């Protein structure tokens, strides 16, 4: 298993637009081999004193935090997907309009060291 995690600040009024784009992208990622995607909209995000999700994304007033992750069978499959993305016109034609500022999006890849609840 390989996990890619994402943290994004999205204008509150763009919630449905974000959900729709996540659904479209999710279908494409399934073609690439992803096994699970979770897109979680802020419900209870506390302001921190040293750091927090808002500071990490430089969230502005009226923006909500989206915390999401994708589960791949392995890193090789995720790497292959990213290679395919570079030449797949879907991303240019269908996903050119983003519901958030992509410059403040952060992501990373992780190898799990403990999981609970998955078969």
Overview of the structural elements:
This protein is α+β, with helices and mostly antiparallel strands. The protein has a single domain (2-110), classed as Alpha-Beta Plaits (2-Layer Sandwich). It contains four helices and four strands; from the N terminus they run βαβαβααβ. A four-stranded antiparallel beta sheet has the order 2-3-1-4.
Q: How do the helices and strands line up, and which of them pair or pack?
A:
Elements: E1 2-11, H1 15-32, E2 36-41, H2 53-57, E3 63-72, H3 75-87, H4 90-93, E4 106-110
Antiparallel strand pairs: 1-3, 1-4, 2-3
Key terms for this structure?
Alpha-Beta Plaits; single chain; 4 strands; 4-stranded antiparallel β-sheet; 26% strand; 119 residues; alpha+beta; 34% helix
């Amino acid at each position: 298993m390989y996990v890619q995690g994402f943290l994004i600040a999205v204008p509150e009024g763009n919630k449905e637009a974000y959900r729709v784009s996540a659904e479209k992208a999710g279908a494409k990622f399934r073609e690439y081999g992803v096994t699970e995607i979770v897109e979680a909209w802020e419900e209870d995000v506390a302001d921190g004193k040293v750091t927090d999700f808002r500071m990490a994304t430089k969230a502005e007033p009226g923006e909500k935090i989206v915390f999401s992750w994708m589960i791949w069978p392995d890193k090789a499959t995720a790497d292959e997907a990213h290679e395919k993305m570079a030449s797949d016109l879907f991303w240019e034609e269908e996903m050119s309009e983003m519901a958030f500022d992509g410059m403040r999006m952060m992501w990373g890849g992780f190898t799990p060291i403990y999981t609970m609840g998955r078969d």
